[in-house]
Prior knowledge:
Layout (H helix, E strand, L loop, with lengths): L1 H28 L56 H9 L16 E7 L4 H14 L4 E7 L4 H9 L3 H4 L2 E6 L8 H5 L12 H4 L5 E5 L3 E3 L3 H5 L11 E5 L8 H5 L10 E9 H6 L13 H12 L7 H11 L4 E3 L18 H6 L3 E3 L11 H12 L6 H13 L11 H24 L6
Parallel strand pairs: 1-2, 1-4, 2-3, 6-8
Antiparallel strand pairs: 4-7, 5-9, 6-7
Amino acid sequence: xKLRSKAAALLLLALAVLLLALLxxxxxxxxxxxxxxxxPEAAPQRRHAPVPTRPPEPRxxxxxxxxxxxxxxxxxxxxxxxxPRAASREKLARxxxxxxxxxxVPPELWIHLAVVACGNRLEETLVMxxxxxxxxxxxxRFHIFTExxxxxxxxxxxxQWPDSYTKKFEHxxxxxxxxxxxxxxxxxxxxxxxxxxLFLPVILKDVDSLLYVDTDVLFLRPVxxxxxxxxxxxxxxxxxxxxxxxxPKIGWYSRFARHPFYGSTGVNSGVMLMNLTRIRNTQFxxxxxxxxxxxxxxxxxxxxxxxxxxxWGDQDLLNIIFYFNPECLYVFPCQxxxxxxxxxxxxxxxEAEREGVSVLHxxxxxxHDDKQPTFRALYEAIRDFPFxxxxxxxxxxxxxxxxxxxxxxxxxxIPQVFLKQIEKTMRRAYEKHxxxxxxxxxxx
Length: 444
């Protein structure tokens, strides 16, 4: 009995010691009274820096409960609704490859390009539009004025271009219309339908600014660059053109014109930048009446007065208008309207010699004969270029080889004038494709 009593006493003693140990352990884990949440020391709460533009609001002290409270993250700043930020607008304008609806582009970011095509000018016009799409960054809106027979073919050809390029533009096709005078007489003035350009301010009433080009024009750099010249207009200027010639003594107007013309050499209207809003709102000085006339009211009387003295049709009428209103015209350098006249008598466009040809104007049909093989080589290189190919391999290098065959001509002796700007443009396009679309990491 004594042994059993001793064993029971020892067991009770051991249980008492174990109970005391458990109580001591619990006291060390929870020294504070229950009800106040305490985070474990091994995992301290991470502090977030306050949002600089918005100080944190005071919060009520939490009630004393046994629950642990979750961490609160600082609120995310969301962009305010309304006008897009400048960075977003710039990205929208300069990232033509991104998938975005054209209708989301703000009106001020469009580049409006107009062309008038009649007769056999379908291919020439499509090659011109192709050159604009190949190199430009911003969204383009084409305004194509043409005959009824050509409308379905224009629409069909433009819709067959790859999606990566059709996303960069939208087009609208208009009939040939003349708001005043005899339409047939206007249509036959100089080249078929060329006089249509005089009526663009009247027809495109919802367009603020516009770049008009002839069908035989090629862009060798982004259209964005010539569009920027609109910013250089002063308060009275409403249109921009290049001189007809650089040397007065060999210019056509200075030697043969029988009517007033702008400056000492006249201007060429094959590439014409216009602020249509200013044109519509201006009263133009003229030789018809002592007071000013609106643009639309001036066209027919002006034509009737000078129709027996003009040779180059609508271009002559524009020269007459700006002869009486020289303050309205901004004259840009010859590199923006480079024609055979600038090299066939010897190089006389200094700006093109320094910076290269920016816009090529193959007038006199030089794209389709052998008189100026340098111009023809550029036209065929852009015409035959497959959209998805590498610009250097499929356009620039073959173009260099073709130029070697033209060194016997005066224009062919200065290949750097023709190649300088287009090489720079292609290099930028290539670098943009590699860095932005392929990515710098994939190059290594």
